[in-house]
Amino acid sequence: MKLYNRNFPVGERLEWMGWVNEGVLNSQIIWQTYIPRFLVLKGNEVLLFDNPPLNIAGLNKPNVAYKVYQTMYVIVI
What are residue 43's DSSP bridge partners? Predict the structure, then answer.
C-alpha cells in the first residue's frame, strides 16, 4: 500500500485492502451464500474487485464502487 499511496493525493490514499466475503441471497436457496471479493477503501470510496488489482490502473476499474456513506458493513465472527 505504501508504494501505491505515493501516487495518490492525501484525500485519495488507500486506507485498507484485503479479502472479504460478500453475502448473496438466492431465491432458490433458503440460506445466504458467500463469495470472496477483494475490498479496497480508497479515500471516501469502497471498491470491490473479483481479483486484486495488479497495478494503479487496475484500481480505476473496480467491479463495483460505492461512496462510504452508501455502505453498511456486517461483521460476522
Answer: none
Q: What is the pLDDT of residues 1-35, one digit of tens each?
A: 777 778 778 878 888 999 999 888 877 877 788 89
Q: Radius of gyration over alpha carbons of the chain, in Å?
A: 14
Q: Tell me: the pLDDT tens digits for 43-75?
A: 889 999 999 998 888 888 999 998 888 877 665
Instruction: Tell me the three cell numbers of residue 49.
Output: 474487485
Residue 57 backbone phi and psi in degrees, to 5? -65, -35
The residue assigned the cell 475490498 is 39
Q: Which three cell numbers stand for residue 7?
A: 501516487
